[in-house]
Amino acid sequence: MPKIVDHDQRRRELVEATLRIIVDQGLAGATMRDIAAESGFANGVIKSYFASKSDLLAATYLFVYEATNRRVELSTSHLRGLAALRAFANEVLPVTPELHDEARVVLSFLAEVAQSPDHARTTRETMAQWRTWIRGWLRQADDDEELAAEVELETAADVLLTYLLGAQTAAIIGGESFDFAGFRRQLDHVVAQLST
């Protein structure tokens, strides 16, 4: 009797192996051969699921993005306004070693974005979702009179998104000695600038 293969599970295992390799060795170390070895599959198996390393990297980016969104939904479920915005930022900012590892994956994928219109579109779509959430929480904060009068919602949403993406870059540049608490202080400063 032929073995039944769970293709979704196999794709996930390949993505998780890619994530581990990028965290441990960086994008340069994420060769198809190393990913296959890390996942325990033959090298040719990857081609059955991902046409290229770039496509595997895109799937790994989406895996991290979706994991972040699940955490955001849990952490913001009973919050609104600036409290929800702060909870969201704490799931995106590299304020723990695990979130720092996720930032490495995001930045590795963004290097691919410059070379691929398809991957650029994927990134725009994911960031559009976050921008929508940020704008919604800012509107709630405005309705609840938490925002300073001079805050312009659209500009503030774009600035916050830019800050979050820039923070991931800064965390990777900072290396292993990065001060995780420093991002928490920065977030306090950013939220204070919005508050009444």
UniProtKB/TrEMBL annotation:
DNA-binding region residue numbers: 31-50
GO molecular function: DNA-binding transcription factor activity; transcription cis-regulatory region binding
InterPro entries in alphabetical order: BetI_C, Homeodomain-like_sf, HTH-type_TetR-like_transc_reg, HTH_TetR, Tet_transcr_reg_TetR-rel_C_sf
Keywords of the record: DNA-binding, Repressor, Transcription, Transcription regulation
Residue stretches making up the HTH tetR-type domain: 8-68
The keyword Transcription regulation belongs to this UniProt entry's keyword annotation: yes
Protein name (record): TetR/AcrR family transcriptional regulator
Organism field: Brevibacterium aurantiacum
Taxonomic lineage from the root: Bacteria, Bacillati, Actinomycetota, Actinomycetes, Micrococcales
